[in-house]
């Protein structure tokens, strides 16, 4: 019998173990690749996201918190998830703000010379009304420093036009949106501190068009509340040009918006129980509410239907998640985040263990990958799955902001994950009357849901 020296026997044994480990890893990777292919095949051949979105946008439409349409959407979400045959579907009660726009807003430039110029305007979410027609001169600023440098007499009794455009040099349009958003959020408060009677804000968009963009603004109870309206980008440019020619022109604004008492609403929750670790939860969600100017298709109807579809895809592909997977349609992301806060509050009270939370709230455009908020070691662990997604165009796994509704879970979970898609067109329609079903591409939408389901499958199988 051939005998090897002791050191050589140990070396050969170690090599044999490495070969077995490598072979096992290759088999596992192949299995995962095949299972992801099953998910994508199901999405592209029999996906339901697009038709679900057609119903949500066409039959229900815009779903501002507290509105009858928001209530209809809750019942639709619950019924739709019940039809999926999930292990559990239920509602989480949450009190939400109830702001109403009222009659269509009117805006007009009135110059000393020539006739008035009608403007496309819309109230910012949460604004007070004008109590009839409000007419005043206008002062334009592009930065907070410009506002601070103006003497009070140049601001008192006037509208302040906040006219800083989004920076087109940024590759990620969301970065430009975030940077310019302080005007919308804080413009009315800062203008009122100086005696202004109203705030006019350039729409947060890189497009040059006639659509005014709404969105949430805030007040300070210690400062007089003044009306705040958005002008389209073209309108803001037009007003700026006319001001240079005639600094004494006036602007007339009429808005009937008001805030009513809070209303009872709900998050909609559906889940598949994990087969091995049912107490570990993976959440995937979008926000069910939307602004009222259009149908809320990309913001965030797409995120809702993709989240529900992710669970359906797992079931249809015959993949039983080892950890509990929960889809949540959050209520009130747009003007309060009450739904996200309530979900986190209830999860903490129940001592639930959340492994990861995923959100889709950047539109239903072509998938790119995922943004991850987690410690560096966790980000690196998730990034090891990038090669599995590259064939589908979803292989960009980067550290970054994950989402507003899951942010309250940050201290209760190992990772927050934001579905990331091509954002170049998103802010053209975001918060406008153009956010309609016809702007959504079926394949892009279904591919996004499959990408989300694929990552959920891996998280459920391997944990973090």
TrEMBL record:
Signal sequence, renumbered to the chain: 1-25
InterPro entries reported for this sequence: CPQ, Peptidase_M28
SUPFAM superfamilies: Zn-dependent exopeptidases
Record flagged with keyword Hydrolase: yes
Segments forming a coiled coil: none
Gene3D superfamilies (alphabetical): 3.50.30.30, Zn peptidases
Gene Ontology molecular functions: carboxypeptidase activity; metal ion binding; metallodipeptidase activity
Gene Ontology, cellular component aspect: extracellular region; lysosome
Protein location: Endoplasmic reticulum; Golgi apparatus; Lysosome; Secreted
Stretches assigned to the Peptidase M28 domain: 267-446
One GO term of the biological process aspect: proteolysis
Record's keyword annotation contains Chloroplast: no
Keywords: Carboxypeptidase, Endoplasmic reticulum, Glycoprotein, Golgi apparatus, Hydrolase, Lysosome, Metal-binding, Metalloprotease, Protease, Secreted, Signal, Zinc, Zymogen
Alphabetized PANTHER family for the sequence: CARBOXYPEPTIDASE Q (PTHR12053:SF3), PROTEASE FAMILY M28 PLASMA GLUTAMATE CARBOXYPEPTIDASE-RELATED (PTHR12053)
Assembly notes: Homodimer. The monomeric form is inactive while the homodimer is active.
Protein name (database record): Carboxypeptidase Q
Organism: Hymenobacter elongatus
């Amino acid at each position: 019998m051939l005998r090897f020296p002791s050191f050589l026997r140990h070396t050969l044994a170690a090599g044999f173990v490495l070969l077995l480990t490598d072979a096992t890893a290759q088999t596992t990777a192949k299995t995962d690749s095949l299972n992801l292919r099953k998910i994508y095949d199901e999405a592209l051949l029999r996906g339901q996201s697009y038709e679900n979105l057609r119903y949500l946008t066409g039959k229900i439409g815009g779903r501002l918190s507290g509105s009858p349409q928001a209530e209809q959407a809750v019942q639709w979400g619950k019924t739709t998830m019940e039809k999926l045959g999930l292990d559990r579907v239920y509602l989480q009660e949450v009190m939400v703000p109830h702001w109403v726009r009222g009659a269509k807003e009117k805006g007009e430039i009135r110059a000393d010379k020539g006739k008035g110029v009608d403007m496309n305007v819309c109230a910012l979410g949460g604004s007070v009304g004008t109590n009839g027609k409000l007419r005043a001169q206008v002062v334009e600023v592009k930065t907070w420093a410009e506002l601070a440098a103006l003497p009070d007499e140049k601001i008192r009794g006037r509208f302040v036009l906040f006219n800083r455009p989004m920076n087109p040099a940024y590759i990620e349009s969301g970065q430009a949106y975030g940077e310019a958003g302080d005007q919308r959020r804080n413009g009315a408060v800062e203008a009122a501190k100086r005696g202004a009677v109203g705030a006019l804000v350039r729409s947060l968009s890189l497009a040059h068009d006639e659509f005014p963009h709404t969105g949430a603004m805030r007040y300070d109870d210690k400062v007089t509340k003044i009306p705040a309206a958005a002008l389209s980008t073209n309108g803001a440019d037009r007003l700026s040009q006319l001001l240079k020619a005639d600094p004494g022109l006036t602007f007339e604004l009429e808005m009937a918006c008001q805030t009513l008492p809070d209303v009872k609403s709900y998050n909609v929750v559906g889940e598949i129980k994990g087969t091995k670790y049912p107490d570990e939860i993976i959440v995937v969600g979008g926000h069910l509410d939307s602004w009222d100017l259009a149908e809320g298709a990309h913001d965030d109807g797409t995120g809702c239907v993709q989240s529900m579809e992710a669970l359906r895809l797992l079931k249809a592909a015959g993949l039983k998640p080892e950890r509990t997977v929960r889809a949540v349609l959050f209520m009130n992301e747009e003007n309060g985040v009450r739904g996200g806060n309530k979900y986190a509050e209830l999860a903490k009270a129940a001592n639930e263990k959340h492994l990861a939370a995923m959100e889709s709230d950047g539109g239903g455009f072509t998938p790119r990958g995922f943004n991850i908020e987690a410690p560096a070691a966790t980000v690196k662990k998730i990034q090891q799955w990038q090669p599995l997604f590259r064939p589908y165009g979803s292989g960009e796994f980067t550290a970054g902001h994950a989402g507003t509704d899951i942010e309250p879970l940050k201290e209760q979970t190992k990772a927050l994950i934001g579905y990331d898609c091509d954002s170049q067109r998103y802010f053209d329609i975001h918060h406008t009357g153009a956010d309609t079903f016809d702007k959504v591409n079926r394949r892009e939408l279904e591919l996004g849901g499959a990408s989300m389901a694929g990552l959920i499958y891996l998280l459920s199988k391997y944990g973090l």
